[in-house]
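STRUCTURE REQUEST FORM
Protein name: Phosphoribosylformylglycinamidine synthase subunit PurQ
Source organism: Leucobacter iarius
Requested output: structure tokens
Priority: standard
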Amino acid sequence: MSARIGVVTFPGSLDDRDAQRAIRLAGAEPVALWHADHDLQGVDAIVLPGGFSYGDYLRPGAIAAVSPIMTEVVSAAKAGMPVLGICNGFQVLVEAHLLPGGLIRNAHQQFIRRDQKLIVENARTAWTSEFEQGEEITIPLKNGDGGYIADDETLKRIEGEGLVAFRYAGVNPNGSLNDIAGLTNERGNVVGLMPHPEHAVEAGFGPDTPEAMRSGLDGAKFFTSAVQALAARV
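Status: completed
Returned output:
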């Protein structure tokens, strides 16, 4: 029986269908979840997708973080369920206090879209286990509010405890402190990042590589890592 991974749709979500496709390509069953429900439909893991939930009013992710479904997501995450937040989903995880710090407007005050190189800093999470520590990968990035911030004490803690999951390589596109592109929680079941792995899972639609245009598949390992982590629990 294949793993069932839920994808939450909020008003303003843009990449929920892309996340569902990535899950399907990884060999799991995607399950559509609705922001106004309190039912996780028995899923084994959850993806919070990119977009502009609730129009990014107040702050990106702030309203979504207190939506009905997030009551269940927070409880499930604290119980150990794997949860991945992508871009706006990362913002939601931070606003829901499942990950530390905050995300603000890009340093240059402009929306950015590029294929972004990342360094894998933590390959021990439910979503990164198929990567190698220190591996360089390329994942599409598109955001206007991706600047990661935290106070000095929080930065010291996440660096000291190995909670940085990904760092920007080559260029820091949004002014994130310490080049932080993604984080994990202490348990390793919750991961959030600004780049979009669901856009690098299928040949012909991913980033360019030295081998061929649009052939980058680095994002697929996020989803296959989760499938393997769930299979190991059985």
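Reviewer notes: The mean pLDDT is 96. Helices lie at 16-25, 68-78, 88-95, 152-160, 220-233.
Form closed.
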